[in-house]
Design goal:
With about 260 residues, the chain is an alpha/beta fold. It is about 45% helix and about 20% strand. The chain has one domain: Vaccinia Virus protein VP39 (Rossmann fold). The protein is built from 10 helices and 9 strands.
Length: about 260
């Protein structure tokens, strides 16, 4: 079974997953199946709010992105929307920006969208990155970290490839509270899966989405996991009443 801590899962659990390997494979297959209409579905189902979230998250790291020698990694990049948002915040002397994902079908679409740019795309597992220690100034993940088979291992790998003092930004869904939360849950658990299934022609992924958000650690728990992984500073900024939010971490100057 997927490892648990304090009765909370530490990794994604798609239907039928028995362990981390089968969970990762199931996620990979899901995203391959919806890759052809992934961008359309993101925009339709979020009412284009996803574009605002990417822009806000990228803007948070302007001090890094404006530096021409910076090295930036966008994990679980999918078709590259967050990667492109990061690039748009750079100056003419662009830093090195790499988009990484373990879905070949998603990366193919990212490469087509980014044709002619200086962006690099690499097929890689976020839990076993092919980069040396302390290589990047910034590591981001937009709506993909939640799908990792082991959250703690993913955080440790982010810390490993960041230089001391480097930053991470994890943008993902949340669960708003109050009256807005009630309406949101009806839409997210009933309407979104139905519409997503019709447009994509695939049933499983859009039933998995609300379930994965519900099982994801709370902001308080996520921040604690970040600190335990090696981030000396960790914070959470809610977007759109908490429908989404940005986790921001700064790697300790010295990891003992």
């Amino acid at each position: 079974m997927i490892e648990e801590r304090n009765s909370r899962i530490v990794g994604a659990v798609p239907a039928g997953a028995r362990d981390r390997e089968s969970a990762a494979k199931a996620v990979q297959e899901m995203f391959t199946s919806i890759a052809p209409r992934y961008d359309l579905l993101n925009h339709v189902l979020s009412f284009n709010t996803d574009r605002v979230w990417w822009w806000r998250a990228a803007r948070t790291f302007d001090s890094i992105l404006k530096h021409p020698d910076a090295r930036v990694l966008d994990l679980c990049c999918g078709t590259g929307d967050m990667t492109f948002a990061l690039r748009r915040r750079t100056n003419s002397g662009s830093p090195q920006i790499v988009g990484a994902d373990f879905s070949h079908a998603m990366l193919q679409r990212a490469a087509v969208k980014g044709r002619g740019s200086t962006l690099r795309w690499i097929e890689a597992d976020a839990l076993r990155l092919p980069f040396p220690d302390g290589h990047f100034d910034l590591v981001t993940a937009a709506f993909g970290f939640r799908n990792l088979a082991d959250y703690d291992a993913g955080l440790r790998e982010m810390v490993r490839v960041l230089r001391p003092g480097g930053q991470c930004g994890i943008l993902d869904f949340g669960e708003p509270r109050g009256l807005i939360g009630k309406f949101y849950r009806v839409y997210f658990k009933k309407v979104l899966p139905a519409v997503g299934t019709v447009i994509s022609g695939v049933q499983g992924p859009y039933k998995y989405l609300p379930a994965s958000v519900e099982r994801f650690p709370s902001p308080e728990e996520m921040l604690e996991r970040m600190r335990q992984a090696g981030f000396g500073e960790a914070s959470w900024m809610p977007y759109t009443f908490g429908v989404a939010g940005l986790y921001r971490g700064v790697k300790k100057s010295q990891n003992l």
